[in-house]
Design goal:
mainly alpha
Length: 194
């Protein structure tokens, strides 16, 4: 289900003006797409985890509606999905931290490889926390690259989908993805080296 970009932009404009009903309508309209993103992220993670796709969407929804002390400030559909990906990242990382804190001897180790695609979603473990730290370092260098990674890993979008949302060429998104991946790999390997 894909919603017309113009319809969402009109609703986002109203939400930006403080219309809470418009924001609720945006979220309900895009709920199915958010749920698909969440299911992709948590594929294969359901056993032994209390975080499911519905819970992830609902937690991300709370973050989306509480953004800016309750005032939605999304410029367009791309901005909405970029923020939704970031909100999902935040929820997943918080969940992984909580799980590790409950484990005995939950010492963190750092990942040393980064798959080109997270077809089965992200692992809700130490690897995710290492990736989150590397993404924070990447954000300090180039926030646009972080946005591409979040949309790819945490929203499960393809390069073509990201290109459409960001109104950029697929080739440009692919280059950004490659640059971000190289930075993240170097950052992850750096944390492993003594």
């Amino acid at each position: 289900m894909t919603t017309q970009s113009g319809d969402i932009t009109v609703l986002l404009d109203a939400a930006r003006g403080g219309d809470r009903m418009a924001m609720d309508h945006v979220l309900s309209t895009l709920y199915q797409e958010l749920h698909v993103m969440a299911r992709r992220q948590l594929a294969g993670q359901q056993q032994g985890h209390t975080l499911d796709a519905t819970a992830l969407v609902h937690e991300a929804y709370l973050k989306l509606t509480n953004r800016g002390a309750g005032n939605a400030q999304f410029d367009d559909r791309a901005h909405f999905f970029a923020y939704a990906a970031s909100a999902m990242r935040s929820v997943i990382v918080d969940y992984a931290r909580q799980r590790l804190a409950q484990k005995r001897g939950g010492d963190l180790h750092r990942v040393t490889e980064l798959p080109d695609d997270l077809e089965g979603g992200v692992n809700l473990d130490e690897d995710l926390l290492g990736l989150d730290a590397a993404l924070s370092r990447l954000t300090a260098v180039d926030p646009r690259l972080t946005q591409v990674v979040e949309m790819r890993y945490f929203a499960g979008l393809s390069e073509l989908e990201i290109a459409g949302l960001l109104q950029r060429s697929e080739r440009s998104v692919r280059r950004d993805w490659q640059k971000a991946r190289m930075f993240l790999l170097a950052s992850l390997q750096e944390t492993v080296s003594p």
